[in-house]
Amino acid sequence: MILRKEQVLFNPLPAVAIGGPPHSGKSVLAYSLTYALREHKVLHYLLRAAPMDGEGDWFHEGPQELVRILRVKGARSESWLPLLRRDIAHRHLPLLVDMGGLPTLEQETILDECTHAILLTPDEESRREWEDRFARHGLVLLADLRSDLHGENQLEQVEPVLIGTLAGLERGRRAEGPAFEALVARLVRLFRAASTDLRRRHLEQAPAELVVDLDLLARRMKRSADRWYPEDLPQVLAYLPPRKPLALYGRGPNWLYAAVAAHTAPSSFYLFDVRLGWIETPALRIGIPPSGSPLVASVRPLGEVSLVEFSLPDAYLNIDEIETLRVPPPPQKGLILSGRLPHWLWAALARVYDAPWIAVLQPQLHGAVVVRSRRVSPPVGTVVPLPFFPHSP
After folding, report:
1. 255 CA to centre of own chain
2. pLDDT tens-place string over residues 212-257
3. Counting CB atoms within 10 angstroms of each CB, which of 118, 163, 180, 185 has the fewest?
């Protein structure tokens, strides 16, 4: 264990684990923290260390009737653990790591790759359990917080360990109160101190001559980089040269990355992945997925469109497995793509399918964002409504 911890400390970027029992509000806290850090323009990434939870930011932002239908179920194995540990150890940005509520002994080894910890527990018994768990792995405790759904937000102590109460950590809401604000301030200081000039170094390492920083692009477009909207797509694509090699850097939604990747095809498209660094979008193949494929797809006809639903049975996809992947042939009508997938895979899907138009499902928008279109209608940037989802079984 000591050797592993020394290996982690060789990476100067912090990885902060958020731990506590099930239903204590960890995912709500994690989402609230990453949202606040974005507002402070702090480079970081939120990593769900328990993919079986099947939740992402869209789970907290999206209409709940859609979320219930689209929520991913459990992973079929723990084969993703070595990959996850590798990626945390070789992180390219400061990390928030949502540990999930019931880690197995194998899953707990993820903590060997973390540096700091945040406790969020509703009672003394679970607090002792998680405090001991963090101590076993030598993590520096940043905050010891009590989760009280119907209580009051309180800040009791700031140093050396932040102590307080977070109330009302429910789906669809964000954390607030003095303890939360103090925790955000602590993370801002920690992450900024460790990542000085990080953006500049990443951009200098880009593998393409043309490099687009999404934050700078947003400023050029005279808009906020905190959130991109589908109606921004036509202006973004008009600014970028088509069919030219390009490297894209920064936080952005999957549909934005998919649209830019399609715009650059057939030239190389590179993106910065927080787990892998700079990678070139791989080429997918169309065909029948073999048995045991790490990527599963199903096609659902929906009148004049088809919904292609992708899932990762092991909840974690290794880019080295790209040669084994096959995606189903597209019907010759509009395609809506759905799934919890890495950005590099969304980029690859947008380039491989030659459909009349392609859209990426966005539950929080009550529809799917068109990212590629060979027709006048629907144009890129349109949100295709999905009236059928609330009535799905």
Report:
1. 13
2. 999 999 988 887 766 899 999 999 999 999 999 999 999 899 999 9
3. 185
**Per-residue model confidence (pLDDT) at position 318:** 80
Q: The tokens 């869209």 sit on which residue?
A: 58
The pLDDT tens digits of the residues spanning 4-30 come to 333 344 578 999 999 999 889 998 999
Higher pLDDT, 316 or 200: 200
CA distance 223 to 137: 43
**Distance (Å) of CA 2 to CA 113, 118, 175:** 11, 21, 35
The residue extents of the domains of the chain are 2-194, 200-391
d(CA 318, CA 209): 27
What is d(CA 25, CA 72) in angstroms, rounded to the nearest whole number? 19
2-194: CATH architecture: 3-Layer(aba) Sandwich (3.40)
- Measured CA to CA, the distance from residue 335 to residue 280 in angstroms comes to 24
Q: What single-letter amino acid sits at 302?
A: L
Q: What is the dihedral of CA 372, 374, 378, 383, to 10 degrees?
A: -10
Q: Report the amino acid identity of residue 69.
A: I
* pLDDT of res. 225: 63
Closest CA to 316 of 75, 20, 137, 8: 75
Q: What are phi and psi of 145, to 5 degrees?
A: -115, 140
> Of the candidates 262, 366, 322, 110, which has an alpha carbon nearest to the alpha carbon of residue 383?
366
What share of residues in the chain are helix, strand, coil (percent, to 5)? 35, 25, 40
Structural contact between residues 191 and 42, judged by C-beta atoms closer than 8 angstroms: yes
| Cβ atoms of 379 and 357 closer than 8 Å | no
**CB of 89 within 8 A of CB of 113?**
yes
CA–CA gap between residue 97 and residue 30 (Å, rounded): 8
End-to-end CA distance of the chain: 47
- Pick the closest to residue 358 from 341, 381, 339 (CA basis): 381
